[in-house]
Amino acid sequence: MIRKNFVYVEDISQYDGKEVSIAGWVYNKRSSGKIWFLLLRDGTGIIQCVVSKKDVPEEVFELEKTLTQESSVIVKGLVHADHRAPGGYELWVRHIEPVHIAQEYPITPKEHGVDFLMDHRHLWLRSTKQHAILRVRHAVVRAIRDFFDNNGFTLIDSPIFTPSACEGTTTLFETDYFGGKAYLTQSGQLYVEAAAMAFGKVYCFGPTFRAEKSKTRRHLTEFWMVEPEVAYADLDDNMDLAEEFLEYVVQRVIREKEKELQVLERDLTMLEKVKRPFPRITYDEAVEILKKNQVAFEYGDDFGGTDETVISSAFDKPVMVHRYPAEVKAFYMKRDPQDPSKALCVDVLAPEGYGEVIGGGQREDDYDTLLQRIREHGLPEDAFQWYLDLRRYGSVPHSGFGLGIERTVAWICGLKHIRETIPFPRTIYRLYP
Ligand code: 4AD
Ligand code: MG
To answer: Chain-centre distance of CA 131, in angstroms?
Structure first.
């Protein structure tokens, strides 16, 4: 019992025929003479409260005139099962105690532009759609944690302040660090590599930062990423893990969050198909798909958002694209011994145009080769001495990947843009609220 005096709307079925108090906010109200209806929102659900002239004191009945949208109230009444009521129950009101009368609420049922809503994000979170999205996000996070926890992975939190880049120097956020320089982490990968040598299989899960100057529907400057890393695992093991993991997360979330996905009017047909095995194709095969679809594409380039959409449209499940040209990938990627121009990497592209949700691969485990790559990429050698140590002391083949939470939530919820998948999004144009 979290609060001794109030029950939650989501638990209301346990109280049929009983008198309860619910503490919440006025979502909406409507009147019809001797009776008025109050839609009461308490964060766990919405219940219809029936206020009848014959059941309540005069001053309570008159509250219909003063209670504005989002005023906070405590409502006492009798729980009554009624299949016509939204949610199957209504509350026959005996008393209403206003807690605070809200000023004129800026978000009304009329259409507002996205910028207006984003400026009021702190209030927008109260609306049904945003509520549903963030409950799905929570379910995604829980499924992710359960998957790794139940498979014997150890959680290793990686630092936010870092001395160097992991995913390229062009998207680094620099900050003053007691007169020196520090960068906000782009990925916890390098640290979970160290941890994998200590614990065998590990994951980190936290916020990551990229100074993305482009304004796309797939990019945030602050996003959450989960990154597993496994010692003695090669690229194939990594792909096996990625597909088992993604199937688990998607299937569990669509089961657990059926109600929320209904609110979002998400068609679940494609999500139900997210089951192993996923198709695995090489970069070269992906380029062939682009050619077949008459997409102008330069062999050797990385895929852009539109390219990914075309490639993934050829399949009705997530597709794993492996072995990209090493030049377009990060310094730590191991090269394919069969073809050293290719990296032993994999991107998982979600169907329905959602693009890359997972990026990962096998890591360079040879000391000399890694040092050479660090130099080729113009990275500061000093800052990487600890990372090179992992190749000095018991180096082994190892692999891992990163899944972006917001892209995954956007895909599962069927949203065009990822900005609504995080409570307070950060983009090149937005630091408020
Ligand atoms: O492909 P990325 O850059 O890979 C890494 O960071 C590796 N170090 C991960 C690893 O192997 N441990 O990013 C991984 C995922 C992408 O597939 C995407 O889902 C997400 O992170 N992502 C972003 N999400 C939102 N906004 C951005 N700016 C993102 N950049 C990457
Ligand atoms: Mg990537």
So the answer is: 14
Of ligand 1's listed atoms, the one at least distance from the Cα of 189 is 12
Question: pTM for this one?
Answer: 0.97
**Ion ligand 2 residue ranges (Cβ < 5 Å):** 359
Tell me the pLDDT tens digit for each residue of 202-225: 999 999 999 998 888 999 999 999
Closest ligand 1 atom, residue 229 Cα: 12
Minimum-distance ligand to the CA of 332? 1
Angstrom distance (rounded) from CA 35 to CA 178: 65
Q: Give the CATH number, domain containing residue 290.
A: 3.30.930.10
Q: How far is the CA of 17 from the centre of ligand 2 (A)?
A: 55
197 shares its domain with 156: yes
Give a yes or no: residue 115 inside a domain: no
Sequence-distant (≥ 6) Cβ neighbours of residue 288 within 8 angstroms: none
Q: Cβ(335)–Cβ(343) under 8 Å?
A: yes
> CA torsion angle for 194, 197, 201, 205 (degrees, to 10)?
-10
Residue 1 has pLDDT above 80, yes or no: no
Does 162 share its domain with 233?
yes
- Of 50, 67, 100, the residue that ends a domain is 100
Average pLDDT (175-201) is 98
Q: Are residues 192 and 126 in the same domain?
A: yes
347 Cα nearest atom in ligand 1 = 17
- Do 93 and 168 have their domain in common? no
On whether residue 15 sits in a domain, the answer given is yes
Distance 268 CA to ligand 2 centre (A): 26
Question: Do 359 and 401 fall into the same domain?
Answer: yes
Q: Is 425 in the pocket of ligand 1 (CB under 6 A)?
A: no
The answer, yes or no, to whether any atom of ligand 1 lies below 6 A from the CB of 208, is no
Which of the ligands is closest to the CA of residue 227? 1
Beta bridge partners of 95: 76
pLDDT at 11: 96
Which ligand number lies closest to the CA of residue 188?
1
Tell me the per-residue pLDDT of 369-424, one tens digit each, with 9 for 90 and over: 999 999 999 999 999 999 999 999 999 999 999 999 999 999 999 999 999 999 99
Are 146 and 206 within one domain? yes
Helix (H) or strand (E) holding 288: helix 283-292
CB–CB of 94/78 below 8 Å? yes
Structural domain contains residue 150:
yes
What is the model's pLDDT at position 86? 85
Domain that residue 397 falls in: 121-421
Alpha-carbon distances of 132 from 29, 145, 312, rounded to whole Å = 22, 20, 27
Q: Which of 65, 100, 135 is the last residue of a domain?
A: 100
Within a domain: 431:
no
Q: What is the pLDDT of residue 215?
A: 82
